[in-house]
């Protein structure tokens, strides 16, 4: 799902919101999550998961083309850990899709072809 698809789905689910309101809501939520992570703090959404910042220490890597050693600096990277409810829901939908596909039935989860914009 893309950001545009998310905005469209929120706007259609909440009829009282305009598309601009839905876009502002999505932008605000993503901005708050990004800013909180940039401060090095954790964002936890119960039932969904947690966004955390992980530290990667400096290390020595290899340039695949030349084989030369390359120094890779330390860095902080965002990491998402899904919550228990999300893991269960995804596993259940995957199992349902597999059993339906094994019987040759359509799942309704098939990917729709994208039309050029």
Mind explaining what this structure looks like?
Helices cover 43% and strands 23% of the residues. Residues 107-113 have low confidence and may be disordered. Helix 1 packs across helix 2. The protein folds into two domains: 1-41; 42-105, Irregular (HU Protein, Chain A), CATH 4.10.520.10. It is extended, with a radius of gyration of 20 Å. It has helices at residues 3-13, 19-38, 84-102; strands spanning 43-45, 49-56, 59-62, 69-72, 75-82. The protein has three helices and five strands; from the N terminus they run ααβββββα. Strands 1-2-5 form a three-stranded antiparallel beta sheet. With 117 residues, it is α+β, with helices and mostly antiparallel strands.
What tags apply to this protein structure?
23% strand, alpha+beta, 117 residues, two-stranded antiparallel sheet, HU Protein, Chain A, 3 helices
Helical percentage:
40-55%
Classified in CATH, the superfamily of the largest domain is: IHF-like DNA-binding proteins
Which structural class is indicated by helix and strand composition? alpha+beta
| Total beta-strand segments | 5
Number of domains: 2
Oligomer: single chain
Order of helices and strands: HHEEEEEH
pLDDT averaged over residues: 86
Name given to the CATH architecture of the largest domain: Irregular
Query: Count of helices?
Result: 3
Strand content: 15-25%
